[in-house]
């Protein structure tokens, strides 16, 4: 069976690493990687690919950044040409990016069946581009591999129940595999002069926060307050930095702004943080995997299990709610739990088993 895998962003490369490793064990599966070029991460060096056994892409479409419509349109055109040349039996997509959407649309219009990993997730906020991408991708997919029982239920509500397969979360596979690898090779704590379990990690990049002065000002206010209790480490993206400067917002001296870090350093910073403040979906889950209390600066979360089990507080960009959640976590650490709502770390193996039988 020939499978064309469409990926374009760092988290998709990481997830593909564990799935592709499983595919490689099956002689019946021949995988071709198509990299749209949506994101380029310098942390994804040749050594990274080689040591983590991420197969190199056969195609790099080099689409780059742009508006949602422009970027998706260029991807659609380029992916279609590759699919014409390769004529795969299946197209595999991940998550909810523009690359995901373009891969799903291109394949479905050519009557090539689609398999979607991390399907069925819903924030129920259609102002998020990711929500539109994931809904369309699910509806165009023959097989929807779901991370959680809630994702399966979401598909049932949309009359897609027959397409859903519960396999667990590929990101959990990654967290188990790559944390040990990272421990042996990286020491971000010495690099950034922070002590393990002695800092708060901040990530903030979503447009709903960064593109609105009031929201970003509330977050800065809360972070400065929290930094009075312990140091805050913030890998800040250039785009967010631009808005901070434009709005005239400044962090206190106990907030350390650093350049974005690679995946392996990032998971170590997550694992050994005392607390995490974020607006990222992936970071919410990784915080839970490593059992680090997380405050999510959004109005909703797709990963409701993290909140239901007490390890995630949803505050929005509200300084009072953020600081109150931090104070509560500081006094009352979440109860220990052995619950594994995201599976047992064998999602990639389960996905491969299904694909091999198609």
Task: List the keywords.
alpha/beta, Rossmann fold, 6-stranded parallel sheet, 2 domains, 7-stranded parallel sheet, 13 strands, 16 helices, 46% helix, 358 residues
Q: What do we call the CATH homologous superfamily of the largest domain? A: Glycogen Phosphorylase B
User: How helix-rich are the residues, as a percent range?
Assistant: 40-55%
Helix-strand string: EHEHEHEHEHEHEHHEHHEHEHEHEHEHH
Q: Span from first to last CA?
A: 9 Å
Unreliably modeled segments:
none
**Rg to the nearest angstrom?**
20 Å
CATH class of the largest domain: Alpha Beta
Which fold name fills CATH's third level, the topology of the largest domain? Rossmann fold
CATH architecture of the largest domain: 3-Layer(aba) Sandwich
Total beta strands = 13
Largest sheet: 7 strands, parallel
Number of discrete domains: 2
Looking across the biggest beta sheet, what order are the strands in? 3-2-1-4-5-6-7
Number of helices: 16
What amount of the residues lies in strands? 5-15%
Q: For this entry, what is the oligomeric state of its chains?
A: single chain
